[in-house]
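your task:
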Amino acid sequence: MGVVGAYTFPPRWNRVFFRVDGRGSYGALKYQGSGTMNSVPDLIVETRGVAGVDFRPGSGVSLSPYLGLGYRHLYNDARGYTSTNAAGYRRYSNYLYAPLGVTIRFDLGNRWVLAPTGEWDIFLIGKQRSRLGDANVGLNDVTNTQNKGSGYRVYAMVERDHLAFGPWMHYWNIKDSDVQSIGLGQAGLEPANWTRELGIEFRYRF
């Protein structure tokens, strides 16, 4: 479950637009790694700013490519034990990325519009803070830096007047982080991981 909000500034310089948006969501994940764990609390907060241009290449069709900067924060509470008795811990993920995408709008008639969006999220840098003391009192909390990865998101929205609704998917694939000391003569990294979110969104447009 979550909420989203966005504001698009009036077009300037002949069809150029600016938009800021944000979202917050809370849910329960299934962890798969060192065993499995169900119903892991997960909180995501994200904010972005993009700039784009509106084109009308033909009757009943418009294109809106855009580029911007985004920030994503994830809090994941995996304290407890997995199916293989591995101890979990709290994790704080912070991603800085550049969204590059396009929205295409098709006029379906009678004020109905189909508006699919495809976006590639260019991963710039990530910081992963792990509260390893939750799993072992002899270990230190650690912050790892992530430099490689990518993501994408797709929407299939249907719009009519003030209302818009449709399914979406967000996906991230992040590579191994750097290696940091975690105490007890050990070193650790945040291993390569992927995240997939699926949902249906309802919007009211002012």
